Each structure stands twice: as structure tokens, then as C-alpha cells.
Amino acid sequence: MQFSLMPARLLKLLVVQSHCSQTVLSQPQEASPSSTSTTASSSTVLVDASTAKVPMLSVDFPDPSIIQDTDGIWYAFATASGNKNIQAARASSPSGPWTYLDQDLLPAPGAWTDGRNTWAPDVRILAPGSYVMYYSGELANSTAFHCIGAATASTVLGPYTATAEPFACPLGQGGAIDPAGFYDNTTGHRYVVYKVDGNSIGHGGSCNNDVAPRVPTPIMLQEVSTADGISHVGDPVQILDRTAADGPLVEAPDLIRTANGTFVLFYSSHCWVSDQYSVSYATAESITGPYQRAAGGPLIRTGDFNLTAPGGATSVEGGGMMVFHADCAQGRCMFGAGFEVDGDSVVD
Length: 348
Fold this sequence. Notes:
Blueprint: E1 11-18, E2 24-25, E3 35-39, E4 65-68, E5 74-78, E6 87-91, E7 99-101, E8 119-127, E9 130-138, E10 146-153, E11 161-162, E12 176-184, E13 189-196, E14 219-224, E15 237-240, E16 250-257, E17 263-269, E18 278-284, E19 292-293, E20 311-315, E21 321-328, E22 331-342, E23 345-347
GO molecular function: hydrolase activity, hydrolyzing O-glycosyl compounds
Signal peptide: 1-26
Site (Important for catalytic activity, responsible for pKa modulation of the active site Glu and correct orientation of both the proton donor and substrate): 178
């Protein structure tokens, strides 16, 4: 089947209401799942905007990622806040309730960083007792820039040990942020997607890239060793870049492969401090693309579920549930939504 002859894929999100947890633990504690859901009948996020969502965690927990450990327990990870470089939470179901863990998973982000503003972690299981974390670290010798770091641990909660050098650091293009791992079960290959942070060398305006000439902020795909999840296999490949419709940038990529073999690339557009920040997606038949953006605009945007500035989404492996942040009284809280593939479309 030729992708160019197919109708645009459609993503359908399911409203997932989750109970937030106020518990803070220094040691993990299992919790019981509890959620309700309704299905929206829409092509692209034509959801009941009056169905408000509540945070899964009522704490500042930006850029969340999610993974199920080998024992079946779910973990979420988030950007630095308070006195922690990398935050974590735990649940027995991806829909919650979630328990915030009072521990820092990456106390030392690496000598190449200044140890501050550590962003957007993503953890992947390489093998039993072997975990890799990708994250964005602020450069010690040039704090205007971030680069991608990698760290390893023998348990999901670490603590993680950072590698001596960055994983990806294209300083001439503005550095790099927002890494996410992906393992293709069909081919046995492992990858990392990330954003080249071109807006860090932009010319001003929203997120420093709203004044012409706008700088590219491409999403890159890097194949890595299946053994260590870090060693590069070949050169990175560009799979998406910003357009005028995205405003100053695209960022926060996350890649899945659905049961029918379609690759779905989630990403955010516009500036994270703007009400225009949103979650969108593109699909492809090959992991290297070309990726076709979904018609109809963002998947989740301000106003949907009574949210403001939703973004930074990560899906569970294989799809079906995603977590993302949106503005809240505490800063940016973690929310969640289910989704499914509807024939040739991904629907919400």
C-alpha cells in the first residue's frame, strides 16, 4: 500500500480521568489503578471541551515520559524542579493514581553540564537489570545551550551514572534537547529521536525564533547500538522540521510503531510559554520517513479538556496511552489520555 494514496491518518484521543496523588515517598509504594474513560467522536481532537481533565500529579512535573518496568509497575520521569535534576513517580497503572517519589534519579548530570536545568528525561530498558536514560543537559562552558546526555543504571530508579561526553551536541546548529528512545520490535533496531535546538541561536521573539530569518529546529533520528543504547550506528537523519504553521519550533518528539506497522511521530509546536503550545503528530510507512503531518491541526491544544498549553507528550511503548504536561497552579502538571488507531488513522 502506497502511503501517498492513503487518507491522512487520524489520531483519536480518549478522555482519561485520573485521580491525582498527594503522596510523597522516599521509597516506592504500590497504588491501585482507578480511571474512567469516554470516547470522543472526532477526526482531529473534536473532543468535548467541557470534559475537564485533572492532573495525574499535582506537582510541577514538566516534559513527562513513561515506561513499564519488568515487574509490571509504571514509572514517569520529568524535567528538573525543586532540588531534583530528574523527577520520578510510580503507579500500578498508566492511568494512575500516581505517587510522587522524593528522590533524584540523576544527582550528577555529567561533568560537561553545569548541573542545572536538566530537561526532558526518557528511560528505556535495554535488558533485565540494564537501563539507559536520555536527557538534556545545560553546558558548563556555554549555559545558553543544551546538549543530549546519556546515563545508565541497573535499576529503573537508579541512581543513573552519566557518560563522560554528550550523546549529541550540534553546537553550530544550536545544540540539542528533548531525546526519546525507540525500539522497533519488528526489526530489532534501536533509535533515539531528538530536537536540534535551533531557536537557541534565533533572532528574537517567541522562544527566540519568531523574528525572520527563522532558524530550523529539525527532529533527528539516530540509530544506536541495541546493546548499550548509546553508541551511534551511522549518522542522524532528519525526519521533520518546523513550518510556518508551527510558529518558532517543533520539539519534544516521541516515536511509536502501531500494530499495523505505521510509525507515529508525536511532537509539540509553538513556544512552551504560549497558549499556542500543543501536541501534534505525523505518520510514515518507513522509520526514516517521509512523515506526513496529520490534517486538521494539533491533536491536543489549549481549550481541549479545559487545558492550557499542553505539550511534551510521550506514549507508552506501542501506543494506547500518552502522558503530557499542561499549565497548572504548581507550574506544569502531568496529564494523560488514551488513544487508538482507527483503520488507516490514529484517532483520539
